[in-house]
Amino acid sequence: MNLKLKKFDVFYIVGLIAATIFMVLEFIFGFVALNITYLIFFWTMKLLSGFGLVLTVSNAILWILNRFTEKFSKKEVQALVIFQLIIPGILIGYAIYSIVSSLPPTIPPTGIQYWIDLLVFLYGVISLILTLYIIPLIKEEFQEAADEGVVDRVKREAKEIGRKIKKGYFSLRKKYAKVQIQDQMTLGDVLDIWRNRFAVYLLIPIAIGSLIFTPVAFVCIIFWLKIFVFDKGEPKLYERIALLISMIWIATITCLSYAFKLVFFTSIEPFFWTIQVFYLVGILISTCIYLYRFIKLKGITIKKVKEEIRERRSANANKD
Q1: Angle 35-129-206 from CA coordinates, rounded to 5°
Q2: Is the pTM of this model over 0.85?
Q3: What is the DSSP annotation of 11-47?
């Protein structure tokens, strides 16, 4: 066992050195064709960003309910829930508009619009890298997103059962805001779990997108393979540190490239509109997961919907 670990360590070090040498040669001889792969990184980040947008909406509704719990009536809670269901549709419409409006030829933003655009972009990249990679890696929670064990599953199911009991209790006491809070927490947890899973699954696209920085690509690919293919157990400390440094490097280069129009960015700028497509995909995926879970929580089924329609038709017929 120790021999295997030593072999892996040697392989990792040699691979990292070889990747670094390749990167140096790449910059010396100008293999700029690899710059186009950098676009894949932006696609990945935008997909995660779109996914996280619906999660943000869900968390915002949760905050409102917690903040004004005692002030919400049943109708107001229902109105808030309906509003929450409408927002993803608005986001989808906005994403489609962003795709159309960013198609070439486009006019670069200037003045205040430029600074707003820059700050939004920088915040988006930094917050995503921090919340999905840097912080989980520091806390040693990154791998858990893709490797949910029996204990984790039992804990999650126990939490859901506890929330169902609370829902029943709050329903009896007619505290409708607190009933919805339980659902909001469940919805938030589900979206958060899926976003964290995507962050791990998408290490390969990130690696491809960072191919111009071959050591980063090497680190991401090996980390992904160790989790999903080789099943070598917990990543070692140096592997986590390497991935942590890689993510910090990616975030730094991405921000600098966008802010100062470095060659990494200018080479893909004509195709930059395509990232909005992945933004839309991220919103669509999270919306589907959100709606599916929402319907399940509310106990809505096709049979119940049909019965409700039938009852309303009967009631209307009796009135006539």
Answers
A1: 35
A2: no
A3: HHHHHHHHHHHHHHHHHHHT-GGGGGGHHHHHHHHHH
310: tokens are 């039938």
Of the candidates 122, 103, 109, the residue with the CA atom closest to the CA atom of residue 49: 122
> 152 to each of 155, 183, 247, 306, how far by Cα in Å?
5, 20, 27, 37
**Per-residue tokens: 101:** 């409006």
Measured distance CA(126)–CA(121) in Å, rounded:
9
User: Which tokens in the block code for residue 263?
Assistant: 């060659």
Q: 């990543």: which residue's tokens?
A: 235
Residue 144, token pair as written in the block: 């858990």
Backbone phi and psi for residue 110, each to the nearest 5 degrees, phi listed first: -135, 165
- 108 upstream amide cis, omega within 30 of 0: no
CB neighbour list of residue 178: distance below 8 Å, 6 or more residues apart = 65, 69, 166, 170
SS3 202: coil
* Alpha-carbon gap, residue 155 to 72, rounded angstroms: 31
Q: What does the pLDDT look like over 25-72, one tens digit per residue?
A: 877 776 555 667 778 888 888 888 888 888 888 888 888 888 887 778
Tens-place pLDDT, residues 99-125:
888 887 767 667 787 787 788 778 878
